[in-house]
Amino acid sequence: IEIIHLHDCLRGALGALHRDVSELSHSLALRHQQHNQQVAARSGPAATAAAAADGSVASEEEITDMERQVSGRFKVIWSVFRAHSAAEDEFIWPALKKRQSPQQQQGHHHHDGNRQKEGPRAGGSEAGVTASSSAAVIEQEEYEEDHKDEERMFETMDTLLTRLRNGLSEQRRRSADADGQDAAGSSPTSSPTPAPAPSPTS
């Protein structure tokens, strides 16, 4: 029962993570659209008004907070998943296998004997016989392989989030550099000091 509840909690956490990622993706798309409008605004006042009137675009600080929330939630989910998978592989499933009744074990052997008498299935494949004759082993291999596949998916997600975080950091750096250049270009230049008027001769 506890395993089922934990799986439900993980599914709920993954659903919340999916919503956070969708919101972050939508905000990034709006920011990109606003950037394009600001670039086009240099050649027309209409684009300037459109870019300024769009108040639904998240600020850089808000996007940074979204990215941190996504990363934090992902790390919690990944850590819980690793601990849970390790507990299943090392303790839970081996303990359940030991509790298997002798009747169930005999049922597996009887089922395996029938499979071997049937011979290869149509098409000449003996995969069905091999799989049936090692049913218990395959069950263990299946859930262990599932955990390995899930771990690879988490590693892929971690790589993507790292790339996203680095990309946002680079974007903030470029924005800061651009703002500095604009400020330097718009600052008034100091006018040369006029030469003193010649004093009247006596």
Describe the structure.
With 202 residues, this protein is mainly α. The chain has 6 helices and no strands. Helix 1 (2-41) runs antiparallel to helix 2, helix 3 packs antiparallel against helix 6 (135-186) and helix 4 (102-118) runs antiparallel to helix 5. The longest helix has 52 residues, at 135-186. The radius of gyration is 33 Å and the shape is elongated. Residues 47-53 and 115-138 have low confidence and may be disordered.
Could you list some keywords that capture this structure?
202 residues, mainly alpha, 6 helices, elongated
Please write out the topology.
Elements: H1 2-41, H2 45-53, H3 60-98, H4 102-118, H5 127-133, H6 135-186
How do you describe this structure in short?
The protein has 202 residues and is mostly helical. Helices cover 81% and strands 0% of the residues.
Structural class: mainly alpha
Portion in beta strands: under 5%
User: What's the multimeric state?
Assistant: single chain
Largest sheet: none
Distance between the termini: 111 Å
Can you give the mean pLDDT?
73
SSE order:
HHHHHH
Percent in helix: over 70%
